[in-house]
Amino acid sequence: xxxxxxxxxxxxxxxxxxxxxxxxxxxxxxxxxxxxxxxxxxxxxxxxxxxxxxxxxxxxxxxxxxxxxxxxxxxxxxxxxxxxxxxxxxxxxxxxxxxxxxxxxxxxxxxxxxxxxxxxxxxxxxxxxxxxxxxxxxxxxxxxxxxxxxxxxxxxxxxxxxxxxxxxxxxxxxxxxxxxxxxxxxxxxxxxxxxxxxxxxx
Length: 202
Ligand code: MLT
What we know:
202 residues; 11 strands; 25% strand; globular; seven-stranded mixed beta sheet; Rossmann fold; alpha/beta; binds D-malate
């Protein structure tokens, strides 16, 4: 997968996996890393799917309606890419924290829904429930931060709470942070994510 890897100064730190929103690319979320952890390695990936020229991490049939077969295939593909990248760049495969926005948050949530050890934790900005009706793996020891908008037209508050509850039922620790906004990524929620990271993961 097309990506950027920036080696951090402290190998004990997690590797931050950056996953952009629809129409974005691997450069978009780089400015966030200094606010989360400026000593961590960064792996920023571009989604392999194009929708009218806009990169995404998996196909959708319509706004908010996912192509489930493609979601499963792309989640597997990203998980394998993480295995390969950990070998190539010599970082700890068991210490990856995803930071995703919108479509990128959805594929990060899908990694958690499908694989027990894909991620150590995740910061999900405006995620949706990636799939329903499946048994999640045991996510004990995994920590998740969700930032959700009270007026998000793409992801309803109910869906954000549903995601929290599904992840908690799978034994992960979840903090749900509300912002009084829509679907946009706000600096307020990035600060909240940084605080959560320093409390839980550093
Ligand atoms: C998705 O398709 O992943 C969600 O609708 C969010 C987005 O618009 O990318």
